[in-house]
Write a structure and sequence with these properties.
heterodimer, A: mainly alpha, MetI-like fold, 14 helices, 79% helix, B: alpha+beta, D-Maltodextrin-Binding Protein, domain 2, Dipeptide-binding Protein, domain 1, Dipeptide-binding Protein, domain 3, 7-stranded mixed β-sheet, 13 helices, 19 strands, globular, BPD_transp_1_N (chain A)
């Protein structure tokens, strides 16, 4: 057991190290120089050289890689080239938007998808099931930014009950911040919910055909108890897998939604960092996301074990 | 039974959600007490030190709001006094004496004096300076403090441009105490002081009570950064924003024009948009080929198609609203037949193929498609390669590894770039260099105008680039907001004269 955990830890660290190398190399070969981007068309060669020296861009590649890695071990993510503030500060500001956004849409989509999926499976083959699944199909096909534009049109332009975008900040106004996140959360949650509902439904249908369901019914367990205790519980494994993937996507893959609602999230920070060649910001934020994704995968593994006792014993 | 209970559970959830939504939506009101202004910008500045970066967004926030120079550029492009109330020029034209305003203090309470002027200009000129527009200070040999209210700037040769150069955002006066931290906490002498920067979201400034000049009418202002054109439209039309002075979605302008709640202002900029050609590459070495290409492009169709009609045709690298503008739009009228003839004369009757590298702005991406189709008609096959800014700067601008590109030159009065060696379009003309050398030492206005006109004529006749159009500045704001600039003689959102009228 300990040996297993140790191997797993080594595996995690190797993955992280490999990721750091890939991230670093890719950003190194990317054409473009942060100093040129900052100083523009009229910059003189001596001015560019002065700025490069100031930013520490003249050090050899290996030195920069090693100092980046060592810095991260000490919690030092470097100083942004363009913003001139510590990258950790930038990331922690952005996390205050990205995390509630991701968590909010994940919760909302789960709250919609699980009851809908179960309901649909229970009424398998009936008109209501077909109807729900058609709506879900549309939800999958429609891109979330289109839903976002529609929501903005209805709630911000026509009804004028919600802001069209922006984020006041938690310390300025909690209510205002919640308002600001409401539409983006819904726009992100609806397509996710559609996917999740379909997965929930088909997983549950698979399970309901298993022998142990018949056995449970045969031993006299009520329909409802069978459904929730044996059906839904066993169907949750694929649902959890999807949830884990969705969380990783939601934390940084929401750049389009962030742009549409001009929210200061992590996705936009990385996007901006790439266009301005603020490589140190991109590097460290992507690294953080890799770590986060690995961590979430780990949590999902644990959750499997919680749901399915067989997995617990195997470990 | 259980179906019902599930249904009631679902209903309960829906009801709860509706309640939560109601609670959240109830309190939303636009919070302006008519003494604050929220203003949209497409790009966020990387930092706020106007003396250490080329991004126009920096000046868009700080110029004349937070930072001031000795002189300033007015809304019509004229040079006006700012921290210097007046200046005299010595008879030999080599010494400018600036008389400074009284009672000026920086936002941190430090009094302003001639020492700060010397510090700022010397810092910008220094060997290790990171000033993006260092050439502005090229002719300065020495800055001498005469007394706390007077400063002399000595030149190596007479210059007609000094007062104008000192009005740029890159030449603003900073305090030695705060120069190092201006990137994140700018401290200047302007009517507004910096309050807060929520990165990725907005920058707030508020009125500075110790301001030396006339107090502005606004108490506070916030600059919000909205790059997506759809979001910009939604923010304006819903009233979340009061103004978008450089509005990024020209296709929606009609809607604002029709709505009495808004004012639409179409003004000029200093952005000459050109199809730049690499003058040392293949067929483009030949002047006849470049002239043929100038004839082959329908510039008005380009303005209509790519810019929704917003833009002024130009025939040279010069802003049409400038008094020294030489109208050369008639030199290369749209004439595909003439273009083919010139190509045949140059030995390219069959045409040729080349690449067109396009940076991200809309004018380039949209314009590029139209230009490629125009050139196809005369036998020139363009392969379109979209590039990012950073890539454009290193591949096109620095390494000059390109055939064609489209870019807007937004620096004011920058015709001098055609005299630079190894500038990215690789043009080299001794005649033009002589003209610019003469211009740089000429102080007499009429003579300068004459020389500038000749310079414009010279690059147009050589068809160095195809001069497409002058970029327009499209502003949208609440009809009750007054005092914003209509034109953009320099990138700025000067809020010192902005006020709200009563409905």
């Amino acid at each position: 057991m300990l040996w297993f955990a140790f191997l797993r830890l080594i595996g995690l660290l190797t993955t992280l190290l490999a990721a750091s190398l890939v991230i670093f190399v890719v950003l190194e070969v990317l054409p473009g120089d942060p100093a040129e981007v900052m100083l523009g068309l009229n910059a003189q060669p001596d001015t560019l050289a002065a700025l490069r020296a100031e930013l520490g861009l003249n050090a050899p590649v290996t030195t920069r890689y090693v100092s980046w890695i060592l810095g991260m071990f000490q919690g030092d993510f470097g100083i942004s080239y363009t913003y001139s503030v510590p990258v950790s500060e930038l990331i922690s500001e952005r996390i205050q938007v990205s995390l509630p956004l991701a968590a909010g849409s994940l919760i909302l989509s789960t709250l919609i998808a699980i009851p809908v999926g179960v309901y649909s499976a229970r009424h398998h083959g009936k008109i209501i099931d077909t109807g729900i699944m058609s709506v879900a199909q549309i939800g999958i096909a429609v891109p979330n930014f289109w839903i976002a534009i529609l929501l903005v049109y209805v709630f911000a332009i026509v009804l004028r009950i919600l802001p069209s975008g922006g984020f006041p900040g938690w310390d300025v106004s909690v209510l205002g911040s919640l308002q600001a996140l409401l539409l983006p959360v819904v726009a992100l949650a609806l397509p996710q919910a559609s996917i999740l509902a379909r997965v929930m439904r088909s997983a549950l249908l698979d399970v309901l055909h298993e022998d142990y369901i018949r056995t449970a019914r045969a031993k006299g367990l009520s329909n409802k108890a069978t459904l929730w205790r044996h059906g839904v519980r066993n169907a949750l494994i694929p649902v959890l897998t999807i949830l884990g993937l969705q969380f990783s996507f939601l934390i940084a893959g929401t750049v389009i939604i962030e742009n549409l609602f001009y929210l200061p999230g992590l996705g936009r920070l990385i996007f901006q960092g790439i266009t301005q060649r603020d490589l140190i910001v991109v590097r460290s934020s992507v690294m953080l996301l890799v770590a986060l994704t690995i961590f979430v995968t780990f949590l999902v593994d644990i959750a499997y074990a919680a749901i399915d006792p067989r997995l617990r014993r195997r470990a | 039974m259980h179906a019902k209970s599930l249904k009631s559970r679902l209903l309960g959830f829906a009801g709860g959600a509706a309640l939560a939504v109601a609670a959240l939506t109830g309190a939303h009101t636009s919070a302006d007490a008519k003494s604050s202004l929220s203003l949209g910008m497409a790009l966020e500045p990387p930092h706020l030190d106007a003396t250490a970066g080329a991004a126009a967004a920096i000046d868009g926030v700080v110029y004349q709001n937070i930072f001031q120079g000795l002189t300033r550029i007015g809304p019509d492009g004229s040079v006006l006094p700012s921290l210097a109330k007046s200046w005299d020029v010595s008879d030999d034209g080599l010494t400018y004496r600036f008389h400074l305003q009284n009672g000026v203090v920086f936002h941190d309470g430090t009094p302003f004096s001639a020492d700060d002027v010397k510090f700022s200009l010397d810092r910008a000129r220094a060997d290790d300076s990171v000033n993006a527009q260092k050439p502005l200070f090229d002719g300065i040999s020495e800055v001498v403090v005469v007394d706390p209210q007077t400063v002399d700037i000595k030149l190596t040769s007479p210059s007609g441009n000094l007062a104008y150069n000192l009005a740029w955002g890159d030449a603003v006066i900073v305090s030695p105490k705060t120069a190092e931290t201006n990137k994140t906490k700018p401290v200047g002498t302007g009517p507004f002081k910096f309050d807060r920067w929520m990165k990725g979201q907005e920058i707030r400034i508020s009125r500075f009570d110790g301001y030396w000049g006339e107090q502005p009418q606004l108490d506070t202002a916030s600059f919000r950064f909205i790059s997506d054109p759809n979001a910009a439209f939604a923010a304006m039309i819903s009233g979340d924003l009061d103004a978008f002075p450089v509005y990024s979605a020209p296709e929606t302008i009609v809607q604002f024009e029709a709505d009495p709640r808004f004012e639409v202002a179409i003004g000029t900029t200093e952005g000459e948009t050109i199809l730049a050609m690499n003058n040392t590459r293949g067929p483009l070495k030949n002047k006849l080929v470049r002239q043929a290409i100038s004839h082959a492009i329908n510039k008005q169709a380009l303005i209509d198609g790519a810019m929704f009609g917003l833009g002024t045709p130009i025939g040279t690298h010069f802003a049409p609203h400038h008094p020294a503008y030489n109208d050369l739009t008639g030199l290369y009228p749209y004439d595909p037949a003439k273009a083919k003839e010139l190509l045949a004369q140059a030995g390219y009757a069959e045409g040729f193929s080349a690449t067109l590298k396009l940076p991200p702005p809309t004018y380039a991406r949209r314009g590029g498609e139209l230009i490629a189709s125009d050139l196809k008609k005369v036998g020139i096959d363009l392969k379109i390669v979209p590039v990012e800014w950073a890539q454009w700067l290193s591949e096109v601008f620095k390494e000059t590894n390109y055939d064609f590109t489209i870019v807007s030159h937004v620096e004011p009065m920058d015709i001098g770039i055609y005299a630079r060696d190894k500038y990215y379009f690789n043009y080299s003309s001794d005649q033009f260099k002589t003209l610019i050398d003469e211009l740089n030492v000429t102080v007499d206005e009429d003579k300068r105008t004459e020389l500038l006109k000749q310079a414009q004529q010279s690059i147009s006749e050589d068809a160095v680039n195809v001069y497409l159009f002058q970029l327009a500045k499209t502003g949208v704001w609440n009809a009750n907001v007054k005092g914003l600039w209509h034109n953009a003689p320099t990138p700025a959102n000067d809020l010192s004269q902005v006020y709200w009228t009563d409905n």
